[in-house]
Amino acid sequence: MTDALPPGSTIGILGGGQLGRMLSVAASRLGYKTCIFEPAGDCPASHVANFHLKAGYDDAEALARFAEATDVITYEFENIPTDALDILERHRPIRPGREALRVSQDRLVEKDWLADLGLTPAPYADVPDRAALDDALARIGTPAILKTRRFGYDGKGQARIDSPGDADEALGSMNGAPAVLEGFVAFQREISVIAARGLDGAVACYDPGENLHEGGILRRTTVPAAIPHALATDAVLLAARILGALDYVGVMGIELFVTDSGLVVNEIAPRVHNSGHWTQNGATIDQFEQHIRAVAGLPLGDGSRHGDIEMENLIGDYSDALPGILADPAAALHLYGKAEARPGRKMGHVNRRR
Amino acid sequence: MTDALPPGSTIGILGGGQLGRMLSVAASRLGYKTCIFEPAGDCPASHVANFHLKAGYDDAEALARFAEATDVITYEFENIPTDALDILERHRPIRPGREALRVSQDRLVEKDWLADLGLTPAPYADVPDRAALDDALARIGTPAILKTRRFGYDGKGQARIDSPGDADEALGSMNGAPAVLEGFVAFQREISVIAARGLDGAVACYDPGENLHEGGILRRTTVPAAIPHALATDAVLLAARILGALDYVGVMGIELFVTDSGLVVNEIAPRVHNSGHWTQNGATIDQFEQHIRAVAGLPLGDGSRHGDIEMENLIGDYSDALPGILADPAAALHLYGKAEARPGRKMGHVNRRR
């Protein structure tokens, strides 16, 4: 507890979306204040945070002011500009640290790094140009997905290639951004592990959840995943290896494919993760508090699960579903305070006890 | 759902303490904004609310502005001045309604009202003057407690009378405030029922908890209370009778004594209640969300309990207890963001799964 932030300290959070919102609530439970750095006004996190510094990531003066007003800095998204991180780090510790951001900000770097660690990413190839795409398609085959190396999320910056004839259009849709080709994995299930590592090096994992994606967006997570115990153990060991190699502090979401030949790492996210939202109603310490505990230097919760939960995202206009959710005694609703329900936008989620 | 507040609406909360804080968090989960009315700056609720209107209850202009900025008004304490309520009610509905406040703001009115309803309050007598106190002591006996009729909480405004010789000092300590004498009840246990009534008249109760008070302050609540099922049913029926008679909307805390001759009503509080804090970690919909659902016109949760919980208040300086709480995997910590840990001050609570 010697490095622990005392109650009343301020945790800075980069990003003001729903993850920042739920991190702020968790921080308040532990007696911490929060300051959100987010260019957009009326953002979800600003509703529940103590302070909202509304400025852009190119505003060096605002970044310095933000850092000075906080005791430690964390984030809800990984695509933070390097220059901004450089400024912030001069003033305050950033947790999770820079190495986790370096690895996860670039799909190619991430896959190389995972392979170097002895883990199995999906088949992939660097696509700096058209010739490389042809080589990659020849090696990986179709169908495959071309993705920008940086700044993709929720299926954005991606183009599916069903046959070599799609290559031109797919590459064109990258708008000249460096890309990586990923092969499809013949998986039985998609699962994810929400893992945490404390400042003291202790690791705690929640039980793996089973994910259902639709159109590149997570639709549903069910815990426990219907996998053998030995495989769940493999997933936890794999997570611990990743966190240890990064000297990681905080919560990480690790998406995995379960295949006939074992676990394939789909991607890692150095932050709380949508597939861990079930912990709010299925664990004593949820992923948001777990992350705050880690970055504040407090001991981690052990992650034990006290119920079987199905988490369902509310995407776009959810108004027709609302009466049924509110009338269901097993359902816990979590809305994000977003004014406009655009198609594909995550508006909230529901955790149902099964 | 026709009278339901849509997400994005603003709930006004009178009072900025820990109950307002946890009500604000619950409102945020349902997509509502909150506006706190509280004279004190840096109050617990202001850390997590959207807006904090810092003004006094005698500021008519501020009260009107507060009401205009909200869609419905609720409160975290019952001692709101009548003049302020009159102003607020001209603009927006106040839930729970005025009758609940009228009854609960005055111990004598409350006891008369409960007796008229056919329920059993503790032995009591009106003490307008010294002669009445002598009569009351002759009838009720000692030990007894003299309490101010209004504005008492957490053991404040109370004086114990162990023998008639204590009468002068006890009456003097009331500082001329109208008082009521209460006899001691020979109880087996203290329990409380956290009950809710929706705008549609539906009633939902949580399982009764067993309370331990020390020095007039709640120290611990354990659920379920170790009482026969029939007695728990009595408590729920009694709660429903109180809520129905008041045409109540919201959560109410009802403190009861279990005696050899049945249940005696100690007091009612027209708000979320300290003895219901266990619901945060033992029920899918906690008392704070239940209250927000009621005042927002949403359907109530059913109140079902999914675990056995012991809630312990953290009173005064809790720093020595903090490492043990954080290291206990069964413990969920809830701090209130208060800067100064004065003796007798509620700083937070812990919910432990048993």
TrEMBL record, chains A, B:
<feature type="binding site">
    <location>
        <begin position="182"/>
        <end position="185"/>
    </location>
    <ligand>
        <name>ATP</name>
    </ligand>
</feature>
<comment type="function">
    <text>Catalyzes the ATP-dependent conversion of 5-aminoimidazole ribonucleotide (AIR) and HCO(3)- to N5-carboxyaminoimidazole ribonucleotide (N5-CAIR).</text>
</comment>
<dbReference type="GO" id="GO:0034028">
    <property type="term" value="F:5-(carboxyamino)imidazole ribonucleotide synthase activity"/>
</dbReference>
<feature type="binding site">
    <location>
        <position position="213"/>
    </location>
    <ligand>
        <name>ATP</name>
    </ligand>
</feature>
<feature type="binding site">
    <location>
        <position position="107"/>
    </location>
    <ligand>
        <name>ATP</name>
    </ligand>
</feature>
<comment type="function">
    <text>Catalyzes the ATP-dependent conversion of 5-aminoimidazole ribonucleotide (AIR) and HCO(3)(-) to N5-carboxyaminoimidazole ribonucleotide (N5-CAIR).</text>
</comment>
<dbReference type="InterPro" id="IPR013815">
    <property type="entry name" value="ATP_grasp_subdomain_1"/>
</dbReference>
<dbReference type="Pfam" id="PF17769">
    <property type="entry name" value="PurK_C"/>
</dbReference>
<keyword id="KW-0547">Nucleotide-binding</keyword>
<dbReference type="InterPro" id="IPR054350">
    <property type="entry name" value="PurT/PurK_preATP-grasp"/>
</dbReference>
<dbReference type="InterPro" id="IPR003135">
    <property type="entry name" value="ATP-grasp_carboxylate-amine"/>
</dbReference>
<feature type="binding site">
    <location>
        <begin position="266"/>
        <end position="267"/>
    </location>
    <ligand>
        <name>ATP</name>
    </ligand>
</feature>
<feature type="domain" description="ATP-grasp">
    <location>
        <begin position="111"/>
        <end position="296"/>
    </location>
</feature>
<dbReference type="InterPro" id="IPR011761">
    <property type="entry name" value="ATP-grasp"/>
</dbReference>
<keyword id="KW-0658">Purine biosynthesis</keyword>
<feature type="binding site">
    <location>
        <begin position="152"/>
        <end position="158"/>
    </location>
    <ligand>
        <name>ATP</name>
    </ligand>
</feature>
<protein>
    <recommendedName>
        <fullName>N5-carboxyaminoimidazole ribonucleotide synthase</fullName>
        <ecNumber>6.3.4.18</ecNumber>
    </recommendedName>
</protein>
<dbReference type="InterPro" id="IPR040686">
    <property type="entry name" value="PurK_C"/>
</dbReference>
<keyword id="KW-0436">Ligase</keyword>
<dbReference type="InterPro" id="IPR005875">
    <property type="entry name" value="PurK"/>
</dbReference>
<feature type="binding site">
    <location>
        <position position="190"/>
    </location>
    <ligand>
        <name>ATP</name>
    </ligand>
</feature>
<dbReference type="GO" id="GO:0046872">
    <property type="term" value="F:metal ion binding"/>
</dbReference>
<dbReference type="Pfam" id="PF22660">
    <property type="entry name" value="RS_preATP-grasp-like"/>
</dbReference>
<dbReference type="GO" id="GO:0005524">
    <property type="term" value="F:ATP binding"/>
</dbReference>
<feature type="binding site">
    <location>
        <position position="147"/>
    </location>
    <ligand>
        <name>ATP</name>
    </ligand>
</feature>
<dbReference type="GO" id="GO:0004638">
    <property type="term" value="F:phosphoribosylaminoimidazole carboxylase activity"/>
</dbReference>
<dbReference type="InterPro" id="IPR011054">
    <property type="entry name" value="Rudment_hybrid_motif"/>
</dbReference>
<dbReference type="Pfam" id="PF02222">
    <property type="entry name" value="ATP-grasp"/>
</dbReference>
<comment type="pathway">
    <text>Purine metabolism; IMP biosynthesis via de novo pathway; 5-amino-1-(5-phospho-D-ribosyl)imidazole-4-carboxylate from 5-amino-1-(5-phospho-D-ribosyl)imidazole (N5-CAIR route): step 1/2.</text>
</comment>
<dbReference type="GO" id="GO:0005829">
    <property type="term" value="C:cytosol"/>
</dbReference>
<dbReference type="InterPro" id="IPR016185">
    <property type="entry name" value="PreATP-grasp_dom_sf"/>
</dbReference>
<comment type="subunit">
    <text>Homodimer.</text>
</comment>
<comment type="similarity">
    <text>Belongs to the PurK/PurT family.</text>
</comment>
<dbReference type="GO" id="GO:0006189">
    <property type="term" value="P:'de novo' IMP biosynthetic process"/>
</dbReference>
<keyword id="KW-0067">ATP-binding</keyword>
